[in-house]
Amino acid sequence: MSNSYDLEFVGLKLIHLRLIAALKQSGQLGLAAAHLGLAQPAATRLLGEIERVIGFQVRERLGRGLRLTEAGEALARRAERVLHELRDAAREISELGDGARGHVRIGSVTGPALTHVLPAIRQLRRDQSRISVEVVVSSSDDLCRQLIDGRLDIIIGRVNDPRLQALLDFQPIGVEPLALLARNKHPLKDMPAPKLADALAYDWILPENDKLLTRTVLGHLTKLGFPEPRRQVSTSSFLFTLAVLKETDAIAPLALSVAQSFSDEGVTPLEVGFTLSVESYGLIHRRGSALTPSAKRVTELVNAAALENPLVTK
């Protein structure tokens, strides 16, 4: 039996969906209107039309501006999904017309970017594929936001925010082993049998306390009865971390795959009995959203690379 809401929402037009989604992104009616090439009075009129169609208020005043109501937030989330699907449909139809040509936007945390994404891109080149790939390397939280916003097609990482779990599909691949990195001429590498306690005498480079890597490392040290390490530098930048490691006696916990890939840069793992892995990572895409043929092909190659070169099997 059809629900009455189905018929009521038929009155919404594409411009309504674009406006409510733009308003969610910008938080200001003037910016949302400008983004769509509308005058602000026209945008105000469209918001009134939305409210008449759905029977709920979608905005409320907040100081000199406005914010979305709970109903407005719900509609905006759905509008974003509809707009994502329309853009993906346009890309898929374009790919069908262009044969094997396509463009895929993939995001990844650092370790799997080296062990899974890079081999997938190499295989695409061997296949002489005309698929172009845009790669974004960042934290899982940032990648999930970009995926939800439609700026990425697929990501390799983790869904740390429970609120996003209903919006995203997660296919586990494995867990990510860590290593303690230091420069090749670090004093600990001259010791016959250095221990983890010896490493705590030096500065450690870690991201902010709310990052998964830091939480995992500090939790592990606490379980072993060790104090929190000294930290003069806190950063999420791998390149800056690498530069500090090469110039100082600092130590940094990083993905083992990163350590192996950059061993020629003058930094290698410390053998101090540090055995730890970050929780499971996997392939993530928007729930209910169909991947384009190009994105499906890249996903297949990433899965194949994960089987051939797993960090740690799931």
3D architecture notes:
By secondary structure, the protein is of the alpha+beta class. The chain folds into three domains: 4-82, Arc Repressor Mutant, subunit A (Orthogonal Bundle); 98-174 and 280-308, D-Maltodextrin-Binding Protein, domain 2 (3-Layer(aba) Sandwich), CATH 3.40.190; 175-278, 3-Layer(aba) Sandwich (D-Maltodextrin-Binding Protein, domain 2), CATH 3.40.190. The chain is built from twelve helices and nine strands. It has helices at residues 4-8, 14-26, 29-35, 40-54, 70-97, 110-126, 140-148, 196-199, 212-223, 238-247, 256-261, 293-308; strands at residues 59-62, 65-68, 102-108, 131-137, 154-157, 168-183, 252-255, 267-269, 277-286. Strands 3, 4, 5, 6, 7, 8 and 9 form a seven-stranded mixed sheet that branches. A hairpin with a 2-residue loop joins strand 1 and strand 2 (65-68). The radius of gyration is 24 Å and the shape is globular. It starts with a helix and ends in a 6-residue tail after the last helix. The relative contact order is 0.15.
DSSP strand tally: 9
The CATH topology of the largest domain comes to: D-Maltodextrin-Binding Protein, domain 2
- Provide a count of the helices: 12
Biggest beta sheet summary: 7 strands, mixed
Mean pLDDT rating: 86
Low-confidence parts lasting 5 or more residues at pLDDT below 50?
Answer: none
Count of structural domains: 3
How far apart are the termini?
43 Å
Radius of gyration: 24 Å
- Write down the overall geometry: globular
CATH classification class of the largest domain: Alpha Beta
What level of helicity do the residues show?
40-55%
What is the SS-derived class? alpha+beta
Strand content: 15-25%
